[in-house]
């Protein structure tokens, strides 16, 4: 892929998309990420390695300097774990020591086995506790390569930005994901799969991107949007009184209100379900019985739908305007996930009874707020 955008900017943009997805869909994996590294930590890393680190890798570590992992595996595409900086130093020094102990000092010699070069910087490992396999960034070529305990060194991806962009697209538009690794969940955490063994495979649920998450993202804006109207004034007051220089107070405030937002969203979903009376034909994401399918517009009886199909099925101009706005803001690789999510909404609104029931609940909440 050719682009004039600097590599570090592409990394920042791709990783920001990934983190946003993690916060929205898989809170345990989001919580496993470590904070970004400061300039002093980055300088100490380079001093320990004895070489300069590529700017794109610094951009990644400034946002997230490693992860703790969930269920013994990492959250990176391919099931890799993002290595903490101390593990990066340990692996790098160990691999350089192996190179020296191999007795081949001239790594430019075509006949000599090259185990490691100074410009190879590791950043992912097999899992948080196992660093005998992993991914490294080749500082000479910009490629992402894999190392193994057996001395194998193979190119995996064109570049670090390409790797992270592929991961972002695979999460946001999983129906369009290329390659053998598919995003899925196990106990609420991101696990790339399908897992090889039977027990973990049975617990693994593939993510298809066809419906919005039940829980709001753990950001202040998303939390506020999920709160009932009559609670937002209290939220605003407490937020404005926060001491932003005290990270513990900010985290406690965010966690408290996020739990309240989750509770409010679940209450709203229960009210909507009660209003619909358990009618399966208007539950998003469920296949309709033939007698109910005949009642829907022909345009939305198949899957996946087109943009025009969905737009024609949305019953209100305000909803269509929001759909148009989201569609225009999205880029082509993200369209499948966006269309599938709006298809669910269109199916719900296509039945007048479902539309009236949902509007009654939502309007009642707004009036009380």
Beta content comes to 5-15%
- Topology order in helix (H) and strand (E) letters: HHHHEHEEEEHEEHEHHHHHHHH
Give the overall shape, derived from the CA principal axes.
globular
Integer average pLDDT: 78
Give start-end ranges of low-pLDDT stretches: 276-286, 299-304
Structural class: alpha+beta
- Rg, nearest Å: 24 Å
Largest sheet: 5 strands, antiparallel
Describe this structure in words.
The protein is of the alpha+beta class. Helix content is 51%, strand content 11%. The chain is built from 15 helices and eight strands. The strands form two sheets. A five-stranded antiparallel sheet has the order 1-2-3-4-5. The protein has a three-stranded antiparallel sheet with strand order 7-6-8. A hairpin with a 2-residue loop joins strand 2 and strand 3. Helix 1 runs parallel beside helix 4, helix 8 packs parallel to helix 10 and helix 12 packs parallel to helix 14. The radius of gyration is 24 Å and the shape is globular. The chain starts with 6 loop residues before the first helix and ends with a helix. About 5% of the residues have low confidence.
